[in-house]
């Protein structure tokens, strides 16, 4: 049976391309360029799916979507948008859109989503949600648009989310956005940075303790789990969690109940867990430093934040955003010169958005004129004052030297021991990228497969531990 698709798009060129691609898949496509035409077509014919642009000649395709949903609750709607803000993505899904595609989009992916929508015609009827504005999550680039799409998918459920990405890429901000825009916005958002708490105090910090549970526990204390009840608990730097705390956390996630340190009662807790890490957990699992079962519990929906250098399109909008913030915090009002913007876009940004933010605040403070020029940016970059954390800025050679200085390796073994230490993360990286496929890992590494197999066995690395994405 042939399915009808309604394509509402006022850019003729885009409409033609999409139409041709969908017709190639055997779908029958009607096109419209206005809200009025859309409504007429919907009244005349039954459609399996509608694809619609947001800004149409006579109105907003999202704002008017509520009525469409009421009249045709079973018809999936796919939104195509050139206004690539998180706000648009959220508005779209709150109005019940089946999928959201920021422009420019990947045509194959759009076709795939359309076919999928045709098959699952039972998309649930959406309700009119409120519009959330002013979210400070900037991300015009394609990779960030993908992040926005993932965010919209977890707003109206309590799925456990694991936010991955280098330091300073905005992991905490994403967690906050999910909380603020989602079902739990009325509840508390409680953030815990596992790396910042002394190891021996982590369990009591998370789960609380009873009076007298340990020396110094002079009163009962309520932990972060209980504080976050009804809301979201954000566990940052999850890779730094000690083994005992991992076990306790796993138990809490499995049972929905916690026990305070030194306490006997099981207390039911209603929290959504969002965790984050800038470390690659796979090799930690392989080494036995992170529980695999906990990893699967936390990693129900992974959201990967790309490093800033992989999304240069975001750099200028971010810089402008930080200038506005700097001004609102009492720093002089500045604008960004085009030459300065170009220079910023070419940097490596090891410290990611945080490093850019620090540089912009300093530039706002130090610039001699209202417009920040390339010279000002260059001098801040040269002086290394952008604010990258010193531990992040250290290069790998320095890290190795520091590591060696702290070791006590027997004479005659230094070279092989140190080399093995370096090989471990290299092999783990290749194996985790190739899901444990030794042939592909060997190709990636550029070494012989037998050499790889031999070294893995010598280093006691189990490639099976990397099987699965
Ligand atoms: N997309 C973004 N739009 C606006 N501000 C951002 C964005 N991403 C990050 N920031 C800002 O950059 C800073 C660092 O972000 P955040 O603390 O969320 O990073 P993180 O990945 O959690 O870092 P870490 O791993 O070091 O904890 C914050 O001040 C945040 O507000």
From TrEMBL:
It comes from the Bacteria. Its main location: cytoplasm. Residues 137-365 form the Sigma-54 factor interaction domain. PROSITE patterns: RESPONSE_REGULATORY, SIGMA54_INTERACT_1, SIGMA54_INTERACT_2, SIGMA54_INTERACT_4. Residues 4-118 form the Response regulatory domain. It is found in: Cytoplasm. The modification 4-aspartylphosphate is found at residue 53. Signal peptide: none annotated. Keywords: Activator, ATP-binding, Cytoplasm, DNA-binding, Nitrogen fixation, Nucleotide-binding, Phosphoprotein, Repressor, Transcription, Transcription regulation, Two-component regulatory system. Pfam families: AAA_lid_14, HTH_8, Response_reg, Sigma54_activat. Coiled coil: none annotated. PANTHER family: DNA-BINDING TRANSCRIPTIONAL REGULATOR NTRC, TRANSCRIPTIONAL REGULATORY PROTEIN. Member of the two-component regulatory system NtrB/NtrC, which controls expression of the nitrogen-regulated (ntr) genes in response to nitrogen limitation. Phosphorylated NtrC binds directly to DNA and stimulates the formation of open promoter-sigma54-RNA polymerase complexes. This is DNA-binding transcriptional regulator NtrC.
């Amino acid at each position: 049976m042939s399915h009808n698709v309604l394509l509402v798009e006022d850019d003729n060129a885009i409409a033609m391309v999409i139409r041709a691609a969908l017709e190639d898949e055997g779908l029958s496509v009607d096109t419209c360029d206005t809200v009025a035409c859309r409504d007429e077509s919907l009244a005349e014919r039954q459609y399996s799916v509608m694809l619609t642009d947001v800004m149409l000649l006579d109105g907003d395709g999202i704002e008017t979507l509520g009525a469409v949903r009421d009249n045709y609750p079973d018809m999936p709607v796919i939104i195509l948008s050139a206004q690539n803000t998180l706000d648009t993505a959220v508005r779209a899904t709150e109005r019940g859109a089946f999928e959201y595609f920021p422009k420019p989009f990947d045509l194959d992916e759009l076709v795939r989503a359309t076919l999928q929508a045709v098959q699952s015609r039972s998309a649930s009827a959406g309700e009119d949600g409120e519009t959330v504005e002013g979210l400070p999550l900037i991300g015009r680039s394609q990779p960030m648009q993908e992040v926005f799409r993932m965010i919209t998918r977890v707003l109206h459920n309590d799925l456990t989310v694991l936010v991955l990405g280098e330091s300073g890429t905005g992991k905490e901000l994403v967690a906050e956005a999910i909380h603020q825009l989602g079902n739990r916005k009325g509840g508390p958002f409680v953030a815990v940075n596992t790396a910042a708490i002394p190891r021996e105090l982590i369990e009591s910090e998370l789960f609380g303790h009873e009076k007298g549970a340990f020396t110094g526990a002079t009163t009962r204390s309520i932990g972060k789990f209980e504080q976050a009840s009804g809301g979201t608990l954000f566990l940052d730097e999850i890779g730094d969690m000690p083994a005992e705390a991992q076990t306790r956390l796993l138990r809490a996630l499995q049972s929905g109940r916690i026990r305070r340190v030194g306490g006997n009662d099981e207390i039911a807790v209603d929290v959504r867990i969002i965790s984050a890490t800038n470390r690659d957990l796979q090799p930690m699992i392989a080494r036995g430093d992170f529980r695999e079962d906990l990893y699967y519990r936390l990693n129900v929906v992974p959201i990967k934040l790309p490093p800033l250098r992989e999304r240069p399109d975001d750099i200028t909008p971010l810089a402008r955003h930080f200038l506005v913030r700097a001004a609102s915090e009492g720093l002089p009002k500045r604008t960004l010169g085009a030459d300065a913007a170009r220079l910023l876009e070419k940097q490596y940004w090891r410290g990611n958005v945080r490093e850019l933010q620090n540089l912009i605040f300093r530039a706002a403070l130090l610039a001699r004129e209202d417009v920040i020029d390339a010279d000002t940016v260059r001098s801040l970059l040269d002086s290394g004052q952008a604010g990258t954390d010193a531990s992040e800025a250290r290069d790998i050679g320095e890290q190795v030297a520091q590591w060696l200085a702290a070791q006590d390796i027997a004479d005659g073994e230094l070279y092989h021991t140190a080399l093995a230490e370096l090989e471990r993360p290299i092999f783990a990286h290749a194996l985790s990228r190739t899901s444990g496929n030794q042939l592909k890992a060997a190709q990636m590494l550029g070494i012989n497969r037998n050499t790889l197999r031999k070294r893995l066995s010598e280093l006691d690395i189990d490639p099976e531990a990397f099987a699965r994405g």
